[in-house]
Design goal:
6-stranded mixed beta barrel; alpha+beta; 29 helices; about 950 residues
Length: about 950
């Protein structure tokens, strides 16, 4: 049995190669989903964690959980000890139940508000005595020694930080007496301690130290041994001294998967729930990264759903392709199956033979599919556009157990798809087989059930629903099901064309049959009578072209939007922040006109000036403008008393700014180009532009006067305006006006004014230099020229638009969309090419006798080739043309909905990239020409002239 299976595979190599290819692609694509998702999510997590660390400082670990209890009047001394013990057990139990690795942790209990009864120590300064578990491993003793774990004669041994030792004159070995402020007058309430050592904290151990410890430098803190501290204070007599207790846990979040992060969130929820059972106002709980992680998990679920939705059409086509190939193989084998049954073979034996064939293919796919899925994931990760790939690194991709699990599912589905027609064939007798062959034009089930009409109506109805509703999810994500529905529309249109195509052929044939030459006449007859057999090929080509065009247009819109956002966020091609330094000696002109030269401390601040002209001399620089940004300003409508805080003030040189910066005109004002406002600002120096949120809050309209304060000038604690400006316009978008702009506490409030006017008010304003590059200029080459000219000494910071664009293109969702669209198109192209070849090779092989008869009737070889060419045009050519039409129709109908499905910084603009579509046309043309070339070579080898003789014999 096994030998016969391998012999059959060898004899029908190309058929089985096509089947293996389908199985391998299904397995690889399914395996690629968890592989890429895992790598993309790990990268997303790393970006979020790094962003958190940068926004705080290098000593704050993102995986920190910190809780603090305050012991006030609500707790009796015995209650204090009880709650400390309960909390210790609760926290350990939470971590035990949710297995997650801790980097480090500590517990501390403190006696606060201590005054030291020593003449050389400030009596008004308060100290805290505490124990902190694990501190011994994170400090270095500089002088003295480590404390002992015992209490001798009622005296606690403590160590202090070097900063405390240097500032408050503690002496090593001295005995000190301390009292809590609330017991200052009680002669019986005091405690004694001896300073035995001075230590230096190792703040590089970020997983141990809490932010408050780092910021305080451990000053005013006396550290005692845990054992000695508990002996001294953990009793009913002294427990009343205890002021607070803290628990700090640090978890390593880097490199964790979504599933591994969920225990962290569970721990956070359980701890928060526990502390909420304690007295209100007596506890604080901090998990600073938790909200970010919750958003991250929501994003990860969205990414996973997106991966499945975008892969679904390709997977359906692969399954469709697999079923088609399997059916072709079974159709080719039906005579053999009938012959075996006539010779006494049982249906189960014949079915088992096909089961072995599928098993061999499935095992091969299970072995090779996941590594191929890893390779496909790397391709997805390197996508920079539709059918555009770059040498990008950064995704940490590994073969996961889930990949093999999905591969196994793919193998099972593949076997089911192949064995269904095999099972049906084993139940068919030779008589039934001949009868079915005689009824070639039997309508398929989907056509009888009007499935095409149902799917078309459903997709159009959902399109209407989507147009009427908001597709942004409550979490801020995007509803990607619109892509799946648009694919259903493509399928429905393809099937509708299959329904109408025979009638279209009959209509053309009816009006032209008397004038058709023999070659075209024979082609019409062949295509019309062979409708059921060429349906698969026509459908495949339609889907390939339509999905390719739609995916190309979708990717083009998303990539164009990413590029626009990069331009919008960066402001200019290159933004240079000069290294502004205050002059130590300043020449100042007083109000009476006299010139004064003095030290910086004696005169108003003035920055050292430098020439900007040398920057423009570098090759590749086209233009430059100066832009000042002042955050934390105040603004109000004239005659109002209340100031609006946290206003960002941008000052520009209007004309130069319009030449260097960029904004999409359609987002500024639908009716008026933004150059109009630039011209207004040029004409009226005191004119300003105001963000809509600020205008609404201050009840501002065009023509109103706004007062602005940015120098914090006050008289009797009353803020005075530094400038009074005229409102020229109100905007929703402006270059660099976006959420999370650097140094801006509130990002909704912005005022744009004339830089020259601002400098008349305050000539000490600092500004950035915004540069526009010439087309094709390299930023690195420009930087090298500046370096050689010695200009980089005056530069504090440089931001480049290309780096912002790379960050936008490296976004996991954008990268995944580009990769999936490209991979899906390539996969469909491969299977379409294989299906194309398979159909025509089998068709020509079946019609060998027909071709021989035509040749014997006098049809020349050229006309026979011409007849096949016409057949190609009426199947492949028509399919490609219809597919292109359906693709553009789908883009026209469904891409406007894309505006509502993506929540982005700028609204999406529907602009189509014809270059991507041209790539599709070229690839399809190569596929068809290659297929015709292979087919021509195959026909030449068939020896058609001998077909009649073979038939007669």
């Amino acid at each position: 049995m096994i030998k016969s299976v391998f012999r059959k595979i060898a004899n029908n190599f190309w058929l089985f190669f096509c089947l293996i290819l389908g199985s391998l692609l299904i397995t690889a694509i399914l395996a690629a989903i968890p592989i890429y998702t895992d790598g993309a999510l790990r990268k997303m997590l790393k970006i979020e964690l790094d962003k958190f660390s940068m926004e705080n400082n290098e000593y704050v670990s993102p995986g920190e959980l910190y809780a603090e209890l305050y012991f006030r009047g609500e707790y009796a001394p015995s209650g204090v000890l009880s709650v400390i013990d309960d909390t210790n057990q609760a926290t350990e139990e939470v971590f035990k139940n949710n297995k997650i690795k801790r980097n480090d942790s500590f517990r501390k209990v403190a006696v606060s508000n201590l005054g030291i009864l020593e003449e050389n120590i400030n009596q008004g300064h308060s100290y805290s005595m505490q124990y902190q578990t694990g501190i011994e491993d994170h400090i270095k003793i500089l002088e003295g020694r480590m404390y002992e774990n015992s209490v001798q004669d009622g005296v606690l041994e403590v160590i202090i930080s070097s900063s405390e030792y240097n500032s408050n004159y503690f002496t090593l070995g001295n005995l000190y007496t301390a009292k809590q402020r609330q017991y200052w007058e009680d002669e019986t309430k005091f405690l004694k301690f001896r300073v035995v050592g001075v230590y230096e904290p190792n703040y590089k151990d970020v997983n141990y130290w809490h932010k408050s410890d780092v910021e305080s430098g451990m000053r005013s803190i006396l550290i005692a041994s845990e054992e000695a501290f508990q002996k001294y204070f953990f009793n009913d007599g002294n427990a009343g001294y205890l002021s607070s207790a803290s628990w700090c846990y640090n978890v390593n979040l880097y490199g964790l998967s979504k599933d591994e992060l969920e225990p962290y969130i569970t721990i956070n929820e359980n701890l928060k729930e526990y502390f909420s059972t304690l007295y209100d106002g007596t506890w604080n709980y901090f998990a600073p990264i938790n909200e970010t992680l919750v958003e991250y998990i929501e994003k990860s679920e969205m990414l996973e759903l997106t991966m499945w939705i975008l892969n679904a059409p390709v997977l359906v086509m692969l399954l469709f392709y697999t079923y088609m190939v399997a059916k072709m193989i079974i159709e080719d084998d039906k005579n053999e199956i009938s012959s075996l049954k006539c010779r006494g073979a049982y249906p189960t034996q014949i079915f088992y033979r096909y089961f072995l064939e599928c098993g061999i293919i499935t095992v091969f796919s299970l072995i090779a599919g996941p590594p191929l899925g890893l390779f496909l994931s790397q391709i997805i990760g390197s996508a920079n556009g539709f059918l555009e790939f770059v040498n990008r690194t950064g995704l940490d991709l590994t073969l996961l157990p889930e990949a093999y699990f999905y591969a196994l599912i793919a193998g099972i589905v593949f076997m089911v798809m192949v064995l269904i027609p095999a099972y049906k064939a084993t139940k068919t007798t030779i008589v039934q087989h001949k009868q079915k062959k005689a009824r070639r034009n039997k309508r398929p089930l989907w056509e009888k059930a009007f499935l095409d009409v149902i799917l078309l109506a459903l997709s159009l109805y959902l399109l209407y629903i989507y147009q009427m509703t908001d597709l942004i999810t409550p979490e801020g994500g995007s509803d990607m099901t619109v892509y799946f529905i648009s694919t259903v529309f493509i399928f429905a249109c393809g099937m509708l064309f299959l329904r109408l195509y025979p009638y279209l052929l009959k209509l053309i044939y009816h009006f032209t049959k008397k004038r058709l030459p023999p070659t075209i006449y024979a082609t019409f007859v062949q295509v019309s009578r062979n409708g059921n057999e060429n349906r698969f090929l026509i459908m495949f080509l339609i889907l390939t072209m339509a999905v390719g065009i739609y995916s190309s247009n979708t990717a083009g819109i998303i990539n164009t939007n990413a590029e626009d956002i990069a331009k919008y966020k960066s402001g200019a091609d290159i933004v240079v922040t000069p290294n502004w330094e205050l002059d130590s000696v300043i020449t100042y002109t007083a109000e009476d006109g006299t010139t004064i030269t003095g030290m910086m401390a004696d005169l108003p601040a003035k920055y050292r000036t430098f020439s900007t002209d040398p920057f423009l001399e570098a090759d590749g620089i086209e233009d430059m403008t100066k832009v000042a940004n002042i955050t934390g300003s105040f603004a109000r409508k004239e005659l109002r008393t209340e100031w609006q805080r946290n206003v960002r003030l941008m000052a520009i040189e209007p004309y130069q700014f319009s030449q260097v910066s960029w904004i999409r005109p359609s987002v500024f004002n639908k009716d008026i180009h933004w150059y109009y406002y630039i011209n207004q600002m040029q004409q009226y120096p005191t004119g300003i532009l105001v963000s809509r949120e600020l205008a609404d809050l201050c009840d501002l309209k065009v023509g109103n006067t706004m007062e602005i304060s940015f120098l914090n000038t006050r008289v009797e604690d009353q803020l005075l305006p530094d400038a009074s400006c005229y409102v020229l316009g109100i905007f929703d978008y402006w270059p660099t006006f976006y959420e999370d702009y650097k140094d801006a506490e509130v990002t909704d409030f912005m005022v744009v004014m004339n830089l020259n006017y601002l400098l008349t008010v305050d000539d000490a304003v600092t500004y950035d230099l915004w540069f526009k590059k010439t087309d094709g200029a390299s930023s690195d080459a420009i930087y090298r020229q500046w370096e050689q000219a010695g200009l980089m000494e005056n530069v504090a910071e440089i931001s480049d638009r290309q780096s912002v664009l790379n960050a936008e293109k490296s976004d996991s969702l954008v990268m995944g969309l580009n990769g999936l669209f490209s991979m899906g198109f390539v996969a469909t192209m491969i299977i379409s090419f294989m299906g194309f070849l398979l159909y025509w090779l089998l068709s020509v092989r079946k019609r060998r006798l027909q071709f021989g008869v035509l040749r014997a009737m006098g049809l020349s070889k050229f006309k026979l080739s011409l007849m096949l060419l016409w057949e190609h045009l009426m199947t492949s050519g028509v399919s490609v043309a219809v597919g292109i039409s359906i693709g553009y129709l789908t883009s026209y109908l469904y891409l406007p909905v894309l505006k509502k499905t993506f929540k982005t910084m700028l609204p999406l603009t529907l602009s189509y990239n014809n270059a991507d579509n041209i790539k599709i046309y070229i690839i399809v043309a190569i596929m068809i020409v290659s297929g015709i070339a292979v087919l021509s070579e195959y026909i030449n080898r068939l020896k058609i002239n001998e077909a009649v003789k073979i038939g007669e014999e």
